[in-house]
Amino acid sequence: MQVTPGTKRGLKRIGTLLGVVIVGSAIFSLLIVALAPVATQVKASGEFWLDEKSDPLVLPPLSEPSLVYAADGTFLARFKAEVDREPVTLDRIPIHVRQAFMAAEDDTFYEHMGIDAKSIGRALLSNFEAGGISQGGSTITQQVIKNAYFIEEESGVARQTIDRKAREAFMALRLERHLNKDQILERYLNSVYIGGGAYGVQAASRRYFNKGADDLLVWEAALLAGMVASPSRFDPVIHPEASLERRSWVMGRLYDLGWIDKATYDLGMGQPLPGQRFEMSDNTESEYFVEAVKQE
After folding, report:
1. What is the CA radius of gyration of the chain?
2. Full-prediction pTM beyond 0.70?
3. Contact 191, 147 (CB under 8 A)
4. How confident is the model over 226-251, as pLDDT tens digits?
């Protein structure tokens, strides 16, 4: 029997498809085996189980600085909290700033229920090829859970294990049952570590642009959103080339998603990066009075 080029191409496609099915089946089987003990433990404890009648999953409060004012309303001092954060409500964060973070981290945030099957599939394939956990596939909701419950104090990061990712996923599904999307996005934008010691979009905006998040331009928001994946690597002050490339990628995502037009994209691509970080003053000249307030 003579094998024609068309037959060869057909056999190659069948072989490729068969390979994808085998790899996919293997990954799915491994996932079921890995998650089964976690699911059993979760259901038995009731701690993270998806029950409409269960107690709401209450996120721990965010640490934030204390502000000192005089009787006439004059600002006197800012006492630092454990981290540099300045929480703001979602209505003070412009739509284009929210979209920049969603474009960079989770563009289907308003469509999924806490986990994204497509992202998980891509992460599983990447991890299978790498022979370990190299990609997380986390949604914004999962990142909120990770930041609230799984960040280790000593390292400042969360361990990449299947058990932790499974618990994170279960808790994300539960959180979506008790909070609406806007509430979750507000928590994320106030809790995520962006870089330069700043947690949350407001603190990061002041750190890199010396202004509030409500004044951020599209390309400025794109830069901050791009830093979330690797705050040190994409810091514009330390690594401007990598930061510029990352910002360009986020701008491209915004354009591809139809969230900005071509003119905005072109304008943003030519903007300079911030060359310094700005430090927020902790107190004013009323040091004696401020110290007395602190002691009290």
Report:
1. 23
2. yes
3. yes
4. 999 999 999 999 999 999 999 999 99
